[in-house]
Specification:
Elements (H helix, E strand, L loop, with lengths): L2 H25 L18 H18 L2 H13 L4 H24 L4 H11 L2 H14 L10 H10 L11 H9 L3 H17 L22 H20 L3 H29 L6 E6 L5 H14 L3 E5 L4 E6 L1 H24 L12 H35 L1 H22 L13 H13 L12
Helix pairs in contact: 1-2, 2-3, 2-4, 2-9, 3-9, 4-6, 4-9, 5-6, 6-9, 10-11, 10-13, 11-13, 11-14, 11-15, 12-13, 12-14, 13-14, 14-15, 14-16
């Protein structure tokens, strides 16, 4: 940064600090209000005063200034001017909450992700607050202006406005949760602080009100038929009590997806349709987030996608073509079900000191499972690709697939220019061996035993 840039940055920071001090002084009654029209002193309205206190509370929480935060809490609990002031506080808190939800949507966050991060970082009641904030914010948009993925998330969250008037929301929410006013105010400031500090993340779809991109019409019916067949095969793999059957059903599902990816790529190339990589996020929940994320990563790579895990927020971002992302999500979900079932059936042994080793066993089990599944999926995908190249002609197929791989890599590297690599420590050999064995049982054997549906 040059000298002039440093000076400008320093001046901006100094001005921002001075403005914050003036706001604090005005809210505390320790400074004159700014001049209004014709040089007269203007007294801030009750609402402006409350908004300043809310802002100070968020800053105090961020800076861990306990005394200042307690002072702001006390003012918000009592409200300026008694009962009428409490109503103003309630209205201002909800208005700020809805405003900030709209802001983080523009920074890439989606409804389900906001609720998950509120639960992870703050607690269950904060998640319930976020659901209500999402529901209230969605009132501004007709259903036709909301992307289908958003609508699905809203349905899963059961996000709806259950209160009659916004001015009463804060009070009746506290009554509904069995909380006193002090606890309600604390929860609201927690959520507002969280929203204010969430970083911008990759935009994975249009926010409400934005124009939705047109989808290519050519492969839509084909994609749906393929996905339905894959879902049916994976459902059978998850429900059977016989490992050999599960192997065969899972193998057939991966074979279908690999063949479909090749057919889709050739079809798009032949029709001249514009098909570009897109981004999607998949939630990965505790316990054992790291090996579960590794499993998702190897499944993504087998389906020509790239994945990166955001440990703090508990999701993995995947970049790839739309049909490949669908395949990745489907297969990951099924393999996770199968891995969890195999893991819980396997019994960890106590160590030489008689201590319970369940956690280390399962961590090692899932890590080994993911590693082995990655090897098997890659081998199966390569086999299908070789067969397709011999059938379609390598000079026709290989350039198309290479171009798509390059497009995914370029899109991924543009979004994630700097990555930190995470390694999982393996400290339970019995868990590692059991996980490898389970992955072999869920590997891609028995393709010939499964008839085409």
């Amino acid at each position: 940064m040059g000298k002039n840039s440093r000076e400008r940055h320093k001046a901006k920071r100094k001005a921002a600090d001075a403005a914050q001090r003036r706001r604090s002084e005005r809210a505390a009654g320790g400074a004159d209000d700014p001049l209004g029209l014709f040089g007269t002193r203007r007294i801030p309205s009750q609402l402006e005063l409350v908004e300043q206190i809310i802002e100070q509370a968020i800053h105090a929480q961020h800076g861990e200034h306990r005394a200042e935060l307690d002072r702001c809490h006390a003012l918000l609990i009592a409200g300026p001017g008694g009962a009428a002031g409490i109503q103003v506080v309630n209205r201002a808190l909800l208005a700020r909450l809805l405003h900030d939800v709209g802001q983080v949507w523009r920074r890439g966050w989606q409804p389900g992700e906001l609720v998950r991060v509120a639960r992870r970082e703050c607690g269950a009641r904060h998640g319930r607050l976020m659901v209500d904030a999402v529901a209230a914010r969605m009132r501004d948009y007709p259903k036709t202006a909301v992307d289908q993925r958003w609508q699905s998330q809203l349905a899963v969250l059961d996000a709806r406005v259950w209160w009659e008037h916004d001015d009463h929301y804060v009070t009746i929410w506290g009554d509904r949760q069995g909380l006193d006013r002090a606890t309600v105010i604390t929860a609201l400031i927690d959520v507002l602080h969280l929203l204010a500090t969430l970083p911008a993340i990759e935009v994975v779809g249009p926010a409400p009100g934005d124009t939705r991109p047109a989808t290519a019409p050519v492969p839509a019916d084909l994609d749906q038929r393929m996905l339905d067949r894959v879902r049916a095969l994976l459902a059978k793999a998850e429900s059977t009590d016989f490992p050999e059957e599960a192997d065969a059903f899972t193998a057939k599902a991966q074979e279908l997806m690999a063949r479909h990816r090749i057919d889709h790529a050739l079809l798009v190339a032949a029709t001249g349709e514009r098909d570009q990589p897109v981004t999607r996020r998949v939630a990965v929940d505790n316990p054992y987030e790291a090996p579960k994320s590794l499993l998702l990563q190897v499944v993504a790579e087998a389906n020509s996608c790239r994945a990166v895990w955001a440990k703090r927020f508990g999701f993995t971002t995947i970049v790839g073509f739309g049909t490949d992302l669908d395949s990745t999500e489907l297969l990951f979900t099924s393999l996770l079900v199968q891995a969890t079932r195999a893991m819980t059936q396997a019994k960890p042994a106590t160590d030489e000191y008689g201590r319970n080793t369940t956690r280390s066993f399962r961590q090692s089990f899932l890590t080994a499972y993911a590693s082995r599944i990655g090897e098997r999926l890659s081998a199966a995908t390569d086999e299908v690709g070789q067969e397709a190249a011999e059938s379609a002609g390598s000079t026709q197929l290989l350039p198309v697939l290479a171009a798509r791989d390059d497009a995914v890599r370029d899109a991924f590297e543009k979004q994630f220019p700097q990555l930190t690599h995470h390694t999982t420590t393996i400290n339970n050999r019995h868990g590692w061996a059991s996980g490898r064995a389970a992955a072999d049982r869920a590997s891609l054997h028995g393709r010939q035993e499964v008839s085409h549906e």
